[in-house]
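Review form for a predicted model. The reviewer records the input and the model, then writes brief findings.
Reviewer: anonymous (R2)
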Amino acid sequence: MIKVGDSLPAATLMEYSEVEGNGCSIGPNPVDVAKAAAGKTIALFALPGAFTPTCSAKHVPGYVEKFNELKGAGVDEIWCVSVNDAFVMGAWARDQKTAGKVRMLGDGSAEFSKAVGLTLDLTARGMGVRSNRYSMLIKDGKVAALNVEGPGKFEVSDAGTMLAQAKG
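Model under review:
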């Protein structure tokens, strides 16, 4: 599992973007994790799946609500990563009203989740291999803080914890 001080793995996430007004997509576009994180402070949070209860009711809304505070604490970008395709992440972004606040990044084949060692096997529940629920503060491509949730928990990967660490 990735740990504080480690560099992010070489990986590509996918991002769905829309053309304002007509709903036609631009993309999905590849996001080279190392290049996108270089020289920036990123608040990354990952979760098991788009449109799932805790993720939709608490996790994403918390980061949307704390956007201005996180920016004020020096965070350049907020990334939400989930093992879903970019089209699902785009639809979830519209539903959660994340535009301009949280980048919704799809890890469709769980390659990033596997590379950081934070997968969650939900095969028995019909969901396959997913991402564990966690957050990490990234500074210039290196992990500055890592908060991994226990099974079924939502206690340490929330926006409030991330804000305290960013102010840190």
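Findings: Residues 53-65 form the longest helix (13 residues).
Further findings: The mean pLDDT is 93.
Recommendation: see findings above.
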